[in-house]
Structures are given as C-alpha cells and as structure tokens.
Specification:
signal; alpha+beta; 149 residues; four-stranded mixed β-sheet; Glutaredoxin
Length: 149
C-alpha cells in the first residue's frame, strides 16, 4: 500500500512540476520573430547571477502567471551573466538593456516588437520590478502597461 501511495505521489509531483514550465525564449531573435508572427507583446526579463529569486518564485513560478502568459505574451529571459552565450549574443543583450534604459537588475520590460524588411523594431511600453503582492497583482500591473494606463 505504501509503495502504491509513493508511486502515486511521485507521478502527481512530476506532472505538477512539468505543468509549471514557462516557455521562456533565451534568444532575442527567436522571441522577436514569435512576437511578429503571433502579434503578441514581449515580456523581457533581464537578470543575472546572484539576483534575488523572489520574482521568479512568487510570480513566474505560479500557475496564475503560467496560464496568463501562455495566452497573452511572449517571454524572453536575458541572463546577462550566462557564460554559454556567444560574445555577439552577450553584446546584443547588453545593447538592448542599455537601449531600454535598464539600470538595475532584475528588471522586466514590456514591449511590442515587429520585423519589417528584416529589421526588428522594439517599442518599450513600460518597465517593472518586483514588488510584493504575488502574481495576480503583478499581472494586473503588466495589463495596465499593455492597456496604456
């Protein structure tokens, strides 16, 4: 009986973890292409090693955020300390950070993106940082930016 219960809990836990995976893009060009094709706005999460995981744990890791983001936005995570990036990708990410006025990390930028004549255009709508209050409050702040409030 205990063995069956343990197997059930393992399967339940595994399926829960699997269902909580966000579809973060880590390549800016891929994310821009998706935004253009799907006509969805872009959420760019700028982060680095040693940054507090609060926003990831209390917002991005929630079912509320997962459900909302799948329907409404393209997720791009740019880890500026990622050693696996090529020098070109790292430089591109730093230039984007500077162009969007990001000074402190972690920071989230909400933007629209399009590609015309093979030239990407990113239009910053607003910046967000983590504030306590949970995913629902944070999502409402993103919606306010998207609605121009």
């Amino acid at each position: 009986m205990k063995q069956k219960l343990l197997i059930f809990l393992f399967i339940l836990g595994f399926s829960f973890l699997h269902s909580q995976n966000l579809a973060w893009k880590t390549n800016m060009n891929d994310a821009l292409k998706m935004c253009d094709e799907q006509r969805k706005p872009l959420l760019i999460f700028f982060t680095s090693a040693g940054i507090s995981p609060a926003i990831q744990n209390e917002v991005f890791a929630t079912k509320d955020f997962l459900d909302w983001s799948e329907k409404n936005i393209i997720l791009l995570k740019l880890d500026l300390s990622d050693a696996s990036l090529s020098a070109e990708e790292r430089e591109q990410n730093v230039k984007l950070k500077e162009a969007l006025g990001i000074e402190e990390l972690p920071k989230v930028c909400i933007a629209t993106a399009s590609i015309r004549r093979n030239k990407p255009t990113i239009n910053k709508l607003g910046l967000l940082e983590y504030n306590t209050g949970g995913a629902k409050k944070w999502i409402s702040e993103v919606k306010a930016i998207l609605n121009g409030d």
